[in-house]
Amino acid sequence: MSNSNVRTCPSDPIPEYAFIGRSNVGKSSLINMLMQKKSLAKTSGRPGKTQLINHFRINDNWFLVDLPGYGYARVSKRDKKTFQKYITDYFKERVQLVCAFVLIDIRHEPQKVDLEFLEWMGENQIPFALIFTKADKLKPQVIQKQADKYINALLDGIWEDAPQYFITSSSNNLGREEVLEFIGGINDE
Ligand code: GDP
Question: Which protein residue's CA is at the shortest distance from atom 12 of ligand 1?
Answer without folding.
Answer: 26
